[in-house]
Write a structure and sequence with these properties.
287 residues, mainly alpha, 58% helix, globular
Length: 287
């Protein structure tokens, strides 16, 4: 071992307090206090001793947190578009797409769980299933996929039904986008603007024609063009999330029925066929 050189001080540990870092939090708000870390880290209540149950819980809990942020951004984006401030919504819509990129990355972690790992605790989940996520349902309703049958899994909670019904009573993100086009002078049919908001969106050739006008002359309709691309960007990430969900489920449980009673992979594959903004995809063929 080399002896320290005569006259050279021994290395001492760095003390952040010397640079002004706060080190005492008795009676003061700390990082953990602000984020309520104790409550968050106390919410992983495993039902079994299976090692991978912790992974399963955390993956779904963090997904719900990201969904909460997505809902927050969706609300703000719609309000901005409805108030004639569409450019402000573009950043929010871009953020929502990146939120779904984070949700996509979470599947990569969950896929490290093998069928044998999952079998150790799957039966203990009872009838609980991601199919019953009310936040996911709220996101689908908010962007325009309004299937009233999907209210039923939440019928046991009056507070959740109230949230979902309130969402069904307001224009979806796509409805607000079309209203924005109409205010911009584009010929969106009146019956589209006054449609039953609770009804599922059905692709409309007249709406596609309006979007085609935008895409054929983006310089004239730049704001509408940018809004369209932000919607497509979001749905692109949303579709990837659904696809990764299907792949993960098939990899872990094959074609077993879901814990919530759905057909599992077959159900999820049907969801891949759902288009949120169909005209924005179909016009690419006709341009």
């Amino acid at each position: 071992m080399t002896e320290p050189t005569q006259g050279c001080p021994m290395h001492t540990a760095y003390d952040p307090a010397r640079d002004g870092a706060e080190m005492s939090f008795d009676g003061r708000m700390s990082y953990g206090d602000y984020l309520q870390i104790d409550r968050i880290l106390g919410a992983q209540n495993c039902l079994t001793s299976a090692h991978d149950e912790m992974l399963f819980i955390i993956q779904h809990q963090t997904s719900e947190l990201w969904m909460r942020l997505a809902i927050h951004e969706l609300d703000a984006a719609r309000n901005a578009i409805a108030s004639g401030r569409a450019p402000e919504a573009f950043k929010m819509l871009a953020r929502i797409a990146r939120i779904f990129e984070q949700l996509n990355n979470a599947w990569d972690v969950l896929r490290t769980m093998t069928p044998a790992d999952y079998s150790h605790f799957r039966d203990d989940l009872g009838q609980s299933s991601g199919f019953q996520s009310w936040q996911y349902r709220l996101i689908e309703f908010a962007v325009g996929n309004r299937n009233l049958a999907m209210l039923r899994p939440h019928a046991h909670r009056a507070d959740l039904i109230a949230k979902l019904e309130a969402e069904l009573a307001r224009p979806s993100l796509y409805d607000e986008a079309l209203r924005h086009l109409a205010r911009s002078g584009l010929p969106v049919p009146a019956e589209v603007l006054s449609r039953d908001l609770r009804a599922p969106w059905v692709a409309d050739d007249r709406v596609q024609a309006v979007w085609e006008t935008v895409y054929r002359d983006p310089q004239t309709h730049w704001e509408a063009y940018e809004l369209a691309e932000k919607l497509v960007d979001f749905e692109d990430y949303f579709r990837r999330w659904r696809f990764n969900h299907v792949t993960t489920v098939e990899r872990v449980i094959g074609f077993k029925r879901g814990t919530g009673g759905t057909s599992g992979v077959q159900y999820l594959r049907r969801m891949l066929e759902v288009e949120l903004f169909p005209e924005l995809w179909h016009l690419r063929t006709s341009l």
